[in-house]
Batch of 4 targets.
Target 1
Amino acid sequence: MTPPTATTPATPAGTRFEAIGTDIEVLVTEPDALAEATAVVREHLARLDLAVSRFRPDSEVSRLARAAEDEPAWALASPVFASALRAALRAARLTGGLVDPTVGRAVAASGYDADLDVVRSRPATHPGDPVPAPGWRSVTIDPVTDRVDVPQGCLLDLGATAKAHAADVLAERLSGRLPGGFLVNLGGDIAVAGEAPAEGWQVGVDDARGSTLQVVAVADGQGVATSSTRHRTWATADGGTRHHLLDPRTGRTATATWHQVTCVGATALEANAASTAAVVLGEQAPAWLEANGIPARLDAPGRVVTTRGWPDPPDGGSR
């Protein structure tokens, strides 16, 4: 998804940088708020990385996984880890387990066991055998103490939901302490809060080559997310490619029926959960999205499918 561009009443001030393995953008309607807003975002993302990164040996997620190698394990979660895990478990409930935070070992076995640049720089290898996910219901977090319990062999993968949830948290945090309106874009997971431009935040939906396919308006109380099978990919020794989205029901890479799915939800977390679930569902995705009342655009080679509530695409894609 492209960085959003607001056209009225004036172009907001913004900044871009890289963090947590993705592109970050912060837009503000009051230019004087940009420096402090950026500092708040950077600080939170640094804490998020230390809490949930699968690629840092010192992260809470990695330390818990090491403790769970031979037996069930537990840990007291930091506030950032606890918040991200609760968000991931909510996404699992909302999607009936199609988005599952216990797929970490399956993702690693598929080849995505380090930062993507590292994975792509290595000689192509044959992916390991599919690894069954323990299942999201096997993970618990105490509502009072924030004690997290996981089963033996569990490696949590909070990547997508943690990023989307962080966008929601940051947009609300910024609007609560600074004047004006804010848009937080964490690698395509977009949350807005506060005063918006008169016509809403103008958000572009891009394809993998960077071409804008459509522009939609986003207002306060909405989140947008795109899940793609074309961005986080790597080569395999058999001449194929893999992407980072797995079907937790099989432990295998999800079939790339859709190049990308973009959803609108009440929050970025809900939009992300829906777009990820849609990739996993493949051809069943449009019906599932319709049944759940989720406006979405699904792009595949030679066709575009939209669900009820999504603005008509300029290329005449079908509903």
Note: The helical segments are 34-52, 60-67, 79-94, 104-109, 116-121, 159-177, 268-281, 285-291.
Target 2
Amino acid sequence: MGIAAVLDPAAVDRESPLPLYHQLRQALLGTLEQGHWQKGDLIPTEREICDTYGVSRITVRRAINDLVREGYLVSQQGKGTFVARPKIQRQLSQLRSFSEEMEALGLRSGSRLLSLRQEPAIGDVAAALQVREGEWIWIVERLRLADDEPTIVSTSHLMLPAHVVLTPAQLHGQASLWRVLRSQGVTFARSEATIQAVEGSVRESELLEVQPGSPLLLVESIVYSDDDVPVEYIRMVSRGDRYKYTVRTSLP
């Protein structure tokens, strides 16, 4: 069956109170979710969609732009609009490491150690960890991989008990930092996080294999121990085209 043949003209009802662009968006999204279009497929042209559903080009463009903005489709100048790779969805409401999150999603986690060092805490880092400026902390900088694809540049600032020692060998490949720390008696109970869109540095763009100026997401978290003491301040810069974060809330 051809790419355009799966379009259902009946999915857009002019008698419905719902806006036409919204109905069209839902129809196209349904085609994606039912698996009729696969990652990398070129979707029908604007003209084909206009003719199939009997709507204007403005309506088609609005529906497609919504799906591009939401990460379901990707437009390439002069080539058309394609089905995007599914975004990796991380739950900020659950306290899980990157490795644990990837395992839950059925993805293979990986890591490249960029730097492991100790240095004095200063400024915002000292404030986040609630320590005096000049106190020595561990810093672990890694490039995180999902199915061998670079997705996150993470920098962990750690205030650890004196008996805890980290080595490059412990953090090789698919190793989880949290598992290493738990094995040495470090506990994690809760975290606080903020999210914002940023323009990554040249180095971050190179590591993540994106064009300079590409949209990136910055997540900054403070992780607390069972004793409600800050253990980790982590800064994660992730690819905006590969990630989305969800937060669950409830009424007090």
Note: The mean pLDDT is 87.
Target 3
Amino acid sequence: MADKSFDVVIIGGGNKALTLGMYLQRYGGMQVGIFERRHELGGGWSSEESPAPGFIADHHATEIADWYWEIALKDFPELKDRGLEWCPYPYPMGGIFVEDNDSWIIQGHYQDPSGEKTAKVWERFSPRDAETFLKVWKGWREIIRPALIKSANVVAPPIHEPDDVEKVVPRFVKEIGLEEPFCYVQSPLELFRDLYESEALIAGLFRIAQSWDGGSPMEFGMGLTKLFISMGFTDFGHLKGGTHSAAHTTYKLFTEDGGKCFTEHEVERVIIEHGKAKGIRLVDGTEIEAKKAVISTLDPHSMLFKLTGKEHWNPRTVRRVANLDRWRITITWYTWALHELPRFDKAAAILPEISQVGKIAIGSKDPTALSRNACGRYMGQWNWEPNLMCLLSSVTDYTRAPAGKAAILTEDFQPGANHFTAEEWKTHKRRHAQQVMDTLSKVSSNMTWDNVIG
């Protein structure tokens, strides 16, 4: 006899669980229970007071697209009343080059719906690239972006059928002047070089796109995907008060509709009878019945090998999950508590808007530097070249820092965690903080340790 019973049991209390739980509870008419091993819900929506009192740091998800909540806000208009507030950047993205402090920018659809202002900036690097950008921008806004939003909010079709994005890609490719079928197998570096002639702009754009997954410019067949990602980041901004605010708002609606959440309740096993999931067993031995479904939001490896057991899966599925790469990358994130935001004086003398850009790529004009970074990482070699992303968190959201202070986040990519011992990581962590500071000081006049609170 089960100790508790729900229509649907969800394992893991992160963003997927909370969002799905809201829909199943309200629109599915089901009784839903969410079970989370940590002391709080939210998963990737994780913000905490750090690295100094009064400062808010996002520890996983930090940037959110404006369309991320578009459908949910229509279905759950109370989310805004419960505290969900999205803050657009003054300007969404750009970059500064360490060689000479030259800079570039993409202004985004709020500031520059036609793309003409951005094209003016790009003319300084290449008039031809400015014209190409306008074609790419138009194709992104009118063809790819609407299909992407639709695709993200419907059930995926069978694997042999094209989804909404795949249906319109040929039209986009034709509009911007790429060639089929070559563009479908090109690496990002190959495709970007087909489109643009400025090596500096190519390097900056790919570093922006790299923020999505830390991938390599040489990845076979990933050119179009990285192009879409580089344009997609123009839609990004912050959730006011940190992404954990989304956990609070969705939790409120889920529980107000009758949903139940259980923190510090780690799931040990999915109970399977006659090939069907019937419930879960917690580490303390408690059994929970699931009348309709058990849903796992954990990673595939944990779901298959820990929660269920490979005997319940097709051998090919077992092999695929076992062979997923889990070693390629560590994303080094620091939130910096500062007395004042970085001053990009030299870059701002060329392009004043750069001081109000939310997402700034700081690195070399040479795109092959990003290739060296990826190759070295995969071999377990630490990368000492400037390859930084700087998010000016408090340029829009003033709640992330005390009055008169500032918060930023820096991102760099290094080898996977298994390449070094715990003691080696401690040494690298100290050296890497100085490495980040050295990179920032190349482009910012006030980024010294005197400006750092924590």
Note: The mean pLDDT is 94.
Target 4
Amino acid sequence: MPGRAVILLSGGLDSATTLAIAKADGFDCYALSFRYGQRHGAELDAARRVAAAIGVNDHVILDIDLRRFGGSALTDDAIAVPKLPTPSSEIPVTYVPARNTIFLSFALGYAEVLGARDIFIGVNALDYSGYPDCRPEYVAAFQNLANLATKAGVEGSQITIHTPLIELTKAEIIRKGMELGVDFDLTLSCYDPSGSGEPCGHCDACRLRAKGFAEALV
């Protein structure tokens, strides 16, 4: 029987679909979001809406200040969010250094406290921005680390990092979410929304989202 699971929830369509998948699989879902110094709070508003709509046992929002480091268009006001496609050979400036490693580390600590052996993250390696910490080999390496570095892992309770979207196109993710009843109107994918939370329509995240809905014929 599935037990407790920690779900990394950003408020975007990928993490919303991931939460819906975990819920449909019978897990008791504990959502974890971060106020990490990103440009706006609109994505956290979306995460709250999604958590409430899909239903979670608890929703924790942690404060960590990655703006102290900067180095990304999402955490440094001196770096503009690009509104033109980034060449596929380059990692975009919207990449936040080590973000998924940081988030998964917190999720791992939360999972140990909860007695959870499952962590869900909505990374994708097909229709994505080319971030190095979204690849299958990265996830496999982190899962190995998780089982070496935790009391649970050493004592034989293996921790599993679930990536149900990693080999899906954005259109397939959208179709899967719709099958599970996800209300994508509640989600936000934009890197640079307006003060009222309206998406810009031109950043990488907005373009990937629009492409996915077009290909899903929705």
Note: The first helix runs from residue 13 to 24.
